[in-house]
Every structure is written in C-alpha cells, then in structure tokens.
User: Fold these one by one.
Assistant:
Number 1:
Amino acid sequence: MSKQKPKVAFYWCSSCGGCEESIVDLAEDILKVTDAVDIVFWPVALDFKRKDVEAMEDNSIDVSFINGAVRLSEQQEMVELLRKKSKMVVAHGSCAHMGGIPGLGNFWNKETIFHRAYHTTPSTDNPDGTVPLEKTKVDGKELSLPRFFDTVRSLDQVIDVDYYLPGCAPPRDIIMNAVQAILKGELPPKGSVLSPNKSLCDDCDRNDSKPEKLAISEIKRPWEVELDPEKCFLAQGVLCMGPATRTGCGERCIEANMPCRGCFGPTDQVYDQGAKFLSSIASILDTDDEKEIEKIVNTIVDPAGTFYRFSLPASTLRRKKMEAIK
Amino acid sequence: MNENKKIKLFINNKPIEVEEGTTILQAAQKMDIEIPTLCYHSLLEPYAACRVCVVERKMGEKVDLATSCNTEVKEGMEVFTDSEKAVNARKMNIELLMARAPAAEPVQEIAQKMGIEKTPFEIKDPTEKCILCGLCVRCCEEVVQANAIGFVDRGLEREVSPPFGEPSEDCIGCTACAFFCPTEAITYEDLHERKIIHEEMDLGPSKAIRVPLRQAVPMVPFVDEESCIHFKTGGCQLCEKVCEKEAVNHEAEEKEIELDVGTVILASGFKTFDSKRIPPYNYGRLDNIISGLEFERMVNASGPTGGEIRMTNGEKPQSVGLVHCVGSRDENYNQYCSRVCCMYSLKFAHLIAENTDADIYDFYIDMRCFGKGYEEFYHRLLEEGTKFIRGRVSEITDIPLSEKEEGKLIIRVEDTLMDTVRRVPVDMVVLATGLEPNEDQTELARMFNITTSQDGFFLERHPKLAPVSTASDGVFLAGACQGPKDIPDTVGQAGAAASEALALADKGTFELEPITAEIDEEVCAGCQLCIGLCPYTAISYDKEKGVSVVEEALCKGCGTCVSACPSGASQQKHFRDQQIMAEIEGIFIE
C-alpha cells in the first residue's frame, strides 16, 4: 500500500454555506484534492456523526478547514473537538477569520435577537410566543438545543488557529494555493493569512484614476450614483473598503462595478480594519469646518455595518456593551 | 535742432556761451545776474504775463525790449538787464501790477527793491492778490492735466476761474494751483469734514511722495498711487523731473520677489483689539474715547497735536480715565493677558500728569508690573496722584444722571475695593486695547507649516526648551506674532531667533528628529491617500514601484499619514501600532 494520504476535515459553524460552496466550486480541481487527501469528516456533504470524530485518535486529522463564526455551544464543542483531533486548523472564510456577517449580531444580544426573530419580524407567525429553549419537556421526555451565546466569536477566539483563508467566500485560487502549500509543506509562519499582505488598491485597475489629492465632500451609496466603471470609487464619493482591505480576492466586486466591502480583512499591520478605514475617511473629508464634517459624516448610513461588516467580533470593539442594549 | 549747438552772447557786456534754446533769463541766472520775475517757474512753460523780467536786447542794429523768460538767446545778441530803458519799463509794469493787486506781497517786495513807494495808478480793489500771472492755469494744464481752471473775460475783467465760476468737476482737489501761486491768491476749501486730533488715521491725503514714517527702513520715499496726480491724470511727474539722482520712476510696479533662503524668521507682529467690538464702551461712537495707540500717536511730538493732549474740541481735558484690559482677560473676547497694557497705561498716566493738570483715574483688574523696574514705576505713579480704581469697567456713556455728569463721559465701574458701583465722570477715556493675532495669521502659519496655539498666535516648538523655534525646521519666531510681549521681551526674543537662524545657516546641516513616519513598501498599495494629507509635503509617489515614499528630512512625525494609511503601511517610528497596543495592554495588566 502506498503512503497514507493526508486526512482532511471540513466543518461549518455559523455561516451561510458559501464557504462549503467554495469547496464545491473547485469543480474538477476537487478531484485533484480528493486524489491527494482523504476526507474524513464533512457533514455538509457526507454522513458523519460526532461520535465518529470522537472516536478518532488525537492529532490524527492532518488539517481541518473550519468555516463560520462561533455562535452556539454546539459549535464551540465541535471546534474544540476538531482542534484536539487535528494537527492543523485553518479558519476558512471571513466568518471564521473575523466573525463575518453573523458577527454583526454583536450589536445585539441573545434576548434582543430572539425578540426580533420570534416576535417582531414582519414574517413571524408565532401566536403562542414560542421561543427556542435549551431544554424542553415533551411527553415527559427532555429535549435539548445548543446554547445561543450573547456574543459571536471568530474561530481564533475559541480555539488555536494555524492559518486563515480570507474572503466571503474564499476564491478558488486562494484555496488551491493553500491546499497545495499544505500538501507540499511549504507554509508561512503560523498565524498567517494565506493571501498577499497588501491592500486591494495594489491590484485595483482604478488606482491610477485617483486624483492627486483625494477629497470627499459627500458620501453616497452605490445606488445613488451612476458609477463610472473606470474611476476610483472613493473619488466618486462611494465608500470602498479597498484601501483598508487585503488583496487576493481577484477584485470580484470591483469588476462587477461594486465597491469593496472588506471581506478579506485588514493587512497584517492593522489591528482594527473598521477603525483604520474610518480614520482614513476622516482624513480625506474635504473640509476643516467642524459642522461641515459632521454633515458629511452623517451621510454615512449604518457606519458600524459599513466599516465592520465582516470584522466586528475580531475588532477592538468586539461587541456593543451588554448594558447598552435595550 | 542740434541740442549741443552753442550760442555766444553778451549780457551786460560780459560774454557767455550757452546751448541753443536757452532763454535770456536762464543765461542770466547762470551768470548770477538777477532779473526779477513773477510769472516764471522753472517747471512750467514761460508765459511772459507779468512782464517784470523785461530786458533790453540788441541784435545788430536793432534795439528793443524783450521779456527774458520766454526769449531765446541768439548768436551775437547783446543783453542789458539794468539799462535805463529796461528798468523804466519794468518800473511801469510793477506800478501797474501794484494797482491791480495791491495785496500781492511779491509785487510789493520787488517794488521796494526798485524804490517804488506808491503806484500812480488808480487802485480798484485793495485786497486783490491775483496778478494774472497764469501759473495756476499753466500748472493745472501742463502738470496736473486736469484743465479745471482758466482765464475768463478780457481786459480789466480778466480773471482766473473754473468754468462758469462753479466748482469744477474736473478739479481733483490736488491744490497744486495754490502751491504754484506766488501771491497766495488761491485758497482751497476742504468740503469733507475731518477731525484732526483723534481720528488722525483719516486725516485726508498725505503728500503723494513721502517717507512713510520717521523710523522707516529703508529711509526712502515712496509714491502713493492713491494720492499721486500722475496716477489720476497721467500728468505731473514733477518729482521725477526735479530729482537730480533720477531716483523716481513712476513706471515701477510692485513686484513679488522670490528668494531661496535656508532659514526664515517670522516677525509678523500683531494687530490691536478693535474696541468697537465692545458696544458698551461706545468707542467710535462718542468723542474723546480713544485707543491706546491713538493716544500714543497724540502724545508723540511728531503727532498731529505736536505732543499736546487735546480733546476733539481742541481743549485740554480736565479729567482722564484709563481703562485696562480692553479685549483682554475677558471670556467674551480674548482670555489671555495682553501683557503690555498695564505698563503702557501707567506710562500714559504719567504723561497726562506731566502734560496737563487733569485728574487721572486708572481702572484696573490687577496691576501686572512684572518687568524690571516696572513695580517701581507703579509706585511712582501712586505717589504722582493717579487714582487707581480696582474693577472692570462695565460701560462708558454720555447719558448724565446728575448735573455734574453733564457734558462728560461717565465711566461705570464696580469698585471691588469699596464694594460699590461707581460712576466716574471724565473728559477723556483712553482704552488699553489688547493685542491680537493678525487676520492672516492662520494663512501664514499654513504657508510655513507651523501651528498656532489656541489664542491664534504662532506656536513655538517648546515653551521652555525651544521658545523661538517652530515645528518647521529653519523657521523661527520673534516678537508678538508668537504671543503678546513688550519691547524688551521682543528684542530679547528677536536676538535669540537671529542667533538660532545664524547658527543653523552657519552649520549648513541640521539633525533630524528620530520620530518620523516611514512607509513599508512591501505593504503599501500605492493608494496615495497620504500624499495630499501630509502638511509638510514630505510624501511623494514612486510611480515605478507603485508606492508612496516619505522624505525623512521633511517629515516632522506628525502622524497624519499614519492614522490615514488604510493598509497600515505607514508607521510612526517609536509609535508603531504594536508599541501603542503593547502600552495599552500594559496599562490593563493588574
């Protein structure tokens, strides 16, 4: 028998499934992957149970790709289990990397989210006011559900993470490069994000269209302007997170004439992507007048959701203070 | 005409050689032979109106009389200035002029010299001064080029007048006609109201060519285009004609001169607080309320009153109030102390005591006599009898509440030592106006990449360790542009600034601060956000590498680019994010 193939696990936590899709999107390349590795755990595609993983020896999985943020107690248990069984853990996609879109739930808590989801959304039809409970008695038997945390966490806030695959979802070349690097054992230092450490402007075709002194006097949302497909979004008054976002995505959004939303996270030098971008934007407002500044800044609709769309749990803010939530 | 052609002639039998085109009068003047004149002026075309300069001339066989001012010399001409025939004719002319203008002094003088006591002719108007010499008309036509006056009528009715005897619209009010008039027959009226004592800033036109002030550096005159006749009518230029050094040039224009320098000393000074901003003080509305600077000008010996302290009616004040802290130490205007007003107010009190017998009231918050010898001066004033009242003046009004306040300025003040509100009637009030930054201070600061402090004055690099330096290397500060200060302090600071500038210029190099920004070209994506933001223009874009680059010699380490850099490529040495985060973490370790 030939040399044993590396064992690989895939798992999803709080995510949309897009990252799973990104694996499937490898298309025929997936065959190269399955040729090279043994997939030992992939709940979304193959029928595995938790007890199968529990039965594995510690460190027997060569690499676990885990996507999604950690929102539920079950997810925490599973990632802790996989960490124990794996030699290497890769945070796959923005949610595992920084908390992602589910991380915006950190502006709320369990109570307010449940209240919204089970009582007040226009589509809620819940005349009995039923709310998920961790333990429920039905016909004398106790049923249990995982615990819903108040705070969403990125993967590395729960377990030790070796590498990060950024993106929502990570594009296939980034994934293939990572897989090949792992197979060849040519890996950068632990903790690296597996994408170039430069901001998106470096690869952006529109960078040269930037005026000598970029100054914004009005901030517009993409639907408010007919966007020039050649011109820098910031020069058009549209917030583009590109300058504060790591490159490597292949400018998918830019090519679709949409500004960058920041899913790749910041470069290694930056602690807080949202704060950094806010600081940049504040620097290029086209006025020194305090009132005028206030007026311009007030044109940013949903600043928290704009600047921290993918990175709130991993930011220095992490979440809204519990006592501030009503 | 060949200008160099020489002509030989004889005057009073003496030979002389002059250039062609010279008049007999000019030739005679060269020989120091005196010929009396009235209507002649070297700057105007000769007119031969008065005919006092008449001489006898002989050309070949022909002998006759000629007016010397407008008769050109001819080869071989013989001139006799004092021949019997000439003198008789001159006498007759003078007698006629005496009858026409008996009040004209120059005519009298010439008559006296010639021994004429009385005119045999009938005197029409004993007050008449005009001798119809036409100097005024010629000057208005030739020099001013306004043509506002001319001769009207003929014979006995002939006179100088503006058209139709009405004030002429063409008159530019230059008064040159009066200047040229030899007999003071022309007077001029100022149709505009002007106060000559307290609003001396509006004293009306000065001489159009003048030295700006006695202490001017360089001490040379300039042409004031606002007042100069040449810039109104295109004429005149007399100053240019009379200046032997040919130093006056009306074509010269203001020029911007660019100089490459290694160091700059900013000494742009201050402006005084405009007391009109405090309406209750009624400055500018009521007479005899003047600012410190206006008082200073008035007591100056070269000022409009020759150093006399006068009210607008020209009388000496019987009582004067000095009001401190006008626009200073006041939350509504400027919070800071202007530092010079206490002492100049004390000086004023002393000068008023010296100049007048007035009662002097000095309204102060507290006396700030911090300089050398200042406290002693204050004590001297206490002995001189100035009445010091501690309290901020709330109002200066002319509305009397009692008979003794009638016609006075009443100063309302809370006397904090007597714990009462007082009304002090005085004749004159001097406001100790504070010092403020110039209007273009911020613009200048931006130009030199330096900052201003909260009060608007230029900010020094360090209040104790670098008091004359600024955030820009090679730019130094001197004087009140950095903050209110008196003359000794200014001179001291200016000396320090000069030596700092010289030391730097002499060395030719300077040391860089270690705290500068640097851009990691591995990380920089070339988004160029930082370039337009750098207040020191220290960042440029390297097109080849596609990255922004910091010029360390220009960087002042302000950190603007660091906070703006969205990719974290720009980092401040010694203040890197990691270092700051480590510090913050350190704080939270228990």
Number 2:
Amino acid sequence: MPTLVQDLKARLGIFESDADRVYGLLAEFSDPGALLHAAEAVREDGYQHFDTHSPFPIHGMDEAMGLGNATGVGVLAFFGGVTGCVGAYLLQWWTAAVDYPLNISGKPFFAVEPSVPIMFELTILFAAFGAVAGMLALNGLPRPYNPLFYSERFKGATDDRFFLHIAASDDQFDVEESAALLQRIGAQHIELVKDDGTMDA
Amino acid sequence: MADAFNRSSFFTWLVDPAQSTRDAAERAYRFAGDRRAWVVPLALGIALLAISALGLWQSPDDFFFAYLTGWSFLLTTSLGGLFFLVFNHLTRAHWSVVVHRINEGLVWAFPLLFLLGLPLLFGMHDLYHWTHAELYDPNSPQYDEVLAGKRAYLNVEFWSVRMVGYFAVWTLISYRLYSFSLRQDVDPDPSLQQKMRNTSAWGLPLLAVTTAFASYDVLMSTDPHWFSTIFGIYFFAGGILSAVATITLLTLILQHNGGLLRGIVTPEHYHDLGKYLFGFVVFWAYIAFSQYVLYWYGGIPEETVWFQHRLRGGWGWHSASLVLFHFLVPFLLLLPQATKRAAPVLGVLAVWLIGMHWFDLHWVVLPVLRDSAGFHWLDFTCWLGLTGIFAGALVYRLSRHPLVPQNHPSLSESLHFENL
C-alpha cells in the first residue's frame, strides 16, 4: 500500500520506484492522438500511477489522464499573497511606529495609506513566490535524476516522440499484464525501466 | 431589404443607424425574443422618468444631481464599451468575436445619450457652481479669484462646444465600427476588417483625450475649485468595468432567455470576461487609491477638501463601502478560476458591479449637493429610468441584427476558443 506521501506525489505524477527496483514500463506511441487515447485506456483500466511525456502540451490530456483541475498552485499563491500583505503591514508598523519613529511633516508614525503600496508590492511578490515555489514543490522539482533518462528513446520526448509511463508503484502494476495492455492499445515500442538501466519488455 | 446594408430613417438612426439585417442572420445567431424584450424596459424607463419629473417640480436640485449621476453612469459605460471594442480590434483578439455584436450594440449609444443629456442644460445653474455670473464680478462679494482664473475654460459656451465635440467624435468612431461590422454581416468583404482596425487606431488616442476632458467637464467641474489629473482615468476605469459587466450580463440574459447563443458563448468566453472583470476591479481600485494617496501625502487643503467632504457627514460610510464592495469583495470572489466560469456567479457579480459603478458615481456627484450622506428617491428613479430607456434601445438594436458578426474572419476561432 502506498503511504499518504506517495499517494499525494502520485496524484501529481511523481512516482517512486518499488523495492524490486523496477521503475515501470515506458511505451512509445506514434502521435499525440494515439497517446491521448492510450492515456484514456490506461486510466479506464484502473491505473493511477502513470504519466505521459510529449514535446508539447496536448489538448485534452488533463481530462484523458483524469488529472482534474489542479488548484494547488492557486491556493499556495493566494496564501503567499496574504502572507505578503500582512507581513508588509506589520513591517510598516514596526519600522515606522515602534523601532524607529520619525516625525515627517506631522504625519502619523503609522498609517495605512502610505503602507498600501508596500502591502501591494509584497502581496504580489509573495504570491509570485508562492506560485513558483508551489509549482516546483508540487511537481517534485528540481529532480535531476529520473530512471526514465536511462532510455535512449526517451530523449525524443523533447523532440518528436510520445511516451506513456506506467509506474511500478501502481497497485495494479504487473510487468507482463501491463505490457500486454500497452501492446493492445497500440504502443510501438515498450521498455522495462529499472532504477539502474532499461531493457526491452 | 435584409440582404444589404442600408441606412435607416433619421429617427431610427438615433437608436440604430442601419436597417434591420435580421433576415440575413444565420438561424443560430438570430435574436429569439419578441417585441416585449425592448418595449418593457423602454416603458418602465419612461414611466420612471415621468415619476422623476414630479420630483423635478418638487426639488430641482435633487433631480438634476440624480439625473447627472444616472446619465454619467450610462455615458461611462458606453465609453468603456467603446474602449473595449477598440482595443479588441487593435489587438486582433479572437476570443471576443462572439461578444463583439453585443459590445457594438452597447457602443451605438451616443446620439441617444446626447438627447438624454439635453435636460441637464436646464440644470446648469444647479449643477455647476462655475456658471454663476456673480463669481466673476470683481465688485461682487461672491467674487471668486480662483474661478475667475479658470473662466477661459469653464464657461457655458465653451463647455457646450466641447460637449458637442466629444459626442461628435464618439458618434463618429462608434458609427464606423458599428456600421462596418453590420456591413460585414451581409457582405464578407475582407477590407472591412482592416477599416475597423484603422478606425480603432486613430480612434483610440482621440477617445482617450475626449474621455479625459469629458470627465473634467461633466463630473470634476461640479466641484470647480478641485482638480485631479488622474480623474479621467478614474472615470474610464469605472466605465470599462461597468461595460464588461454589461456585456457579460447581456450575453447571459440572451443565452438564458430564448436559448440563443447556446453553445456559441461558452464557459471559455465567460472565463475571459471574468478575467477582464477581475482585472478592471483591480485597476479601478489602483487608480482610485492613487488619486487618494497622493492627496493624503501632500496634505494641501485645496486638494484634500474633496476627500474631506467624502469622509464626513456619513459619506465616510459610502467611501468605506466602495473599498469593500467595489474592490475587496468582487476581488476575492473573482479570484478563483471556478467563479469566472460559473454563469450564475458571474451573472450576480455583473449586476453587482454595474450597481457599484453607479454607487461610485453617486459618491463622486452627490456630496457636492448634500453635506450628509444618503439617498434620495430621485437618485434611483432617474438612474433606473434612464437605464430603462438605454436598455430598451440597446435590446432593440440587438434584435435587428445577427447576434454575432457572422462573417468575421476570426469567428470560427472564437467559437472554438479554449482557455485551458
């Protein structure tokens, strides 16, 4: 059974390898359409730990893979923004009215009005931090190593090739059965990826 | 003749410059409602204005200020729509093509608004302090040196000439954009697209300058000692927000009454309209605050007096309501993706923002008249009466033509537009 953390990561498309050091199956498809249908078929077959790789975004892939609407980054950006706004308010108040009060042309030591630009800027800044850091964290990045990189063919994923990867961490994963499924749905080439190399399946 | 573009007769021209091309419309783009769709708002509007006329007899001050608020509400909304149309043409936006006709319907408003504005001429003395002759007589105890200095600009003759000029420019730009687009419905001539873009290109700077000066003349000069260089942008920001809200609301109404535009305007388009609403909510707040904070920093009495007035005598509640309900609440509601794509939520927000735009103008105009805050019944009857007539004319226009520019080269792209 996957742990909660593994499950959460899997939902985001980050799969860990199993204890037997098999990382999963990597199947190549001929074109974006075939990959889209393959993703649908794999999902309908009950797999949850799988991912697709293509040189460009494929329209409708989110629905085909059953990813749903990823709101995680939005939520993190929102709380980043709230943090920035409140933080700027406190910063303004503490520096201007507590730590180093200066009388400037009779204005109050602390007032909301001149603080708004700072609150605005820090809201934006921290919302951006939240969005970027959240995007990286939720994608499991930076991740310099991935067993899929052992596959020579996989380099084509940034050029002209389309891949579907079923992770060994999926409860339903079985080298033979999963490979048979991939074969059935039109995979052109299937590789078994291990943590230390690949071989044809 | 429905299969060609023909100019309409003079009286109809005020409401719609072209004869009906309804029969040339493809079925899916045809207006589905009947005569009631425009007769009812028009009749309600006339009735409310008739009731307001009783108020004119009872209290002319209240009437004229309420009328100015309602009229400015329609003027800013139409100008906002014209800006929206112009920059959609200039950026060759594809997504918005399906709502272009609704936007164009909103934009052909200036001849009617000009007529509806004429009653204000009888209230110049009440509305505009600078029209008082004794201010300029050095021997009078009312002599006002500051206003005497502004007299070369602020005098009724020049003011009237300027207003005619503004309306001529707005009518010209909107006539070209509207009539080229209607022509395109029956005649798919590719050069029309270029003509609309050209008009938008020279129209935009003209529009910007006239809008800014109109804001000074119509609203800022109700308090003639006060000045704010950002006032034109403030006027524009509220107007374009109201315009996008109006386009959204009209689209939703057309779609849900009579089944029109179903499958044509999709959640993808609503999502984009929602983004614009969100953007202009923020823009309005940004501009409103910019105006405020500079005067707060300066602390010069002749500049702060305008805000002083709007923070005292209960007007402070109105100011706080603006921050809360014109900015914070719609900001938070429009922030998630889901609310921008959900038609009912967007519909409620559109009505809300249109109402808040009027409330904003009420806050600009009425403190000039009244020291203590609040509403007079005339504020509502004038606003809703004028809006009824305006809406009746708008729906009438929409009912006479295809509801989308059916020969627009980017229509197909717009129909299949997707955000995600």
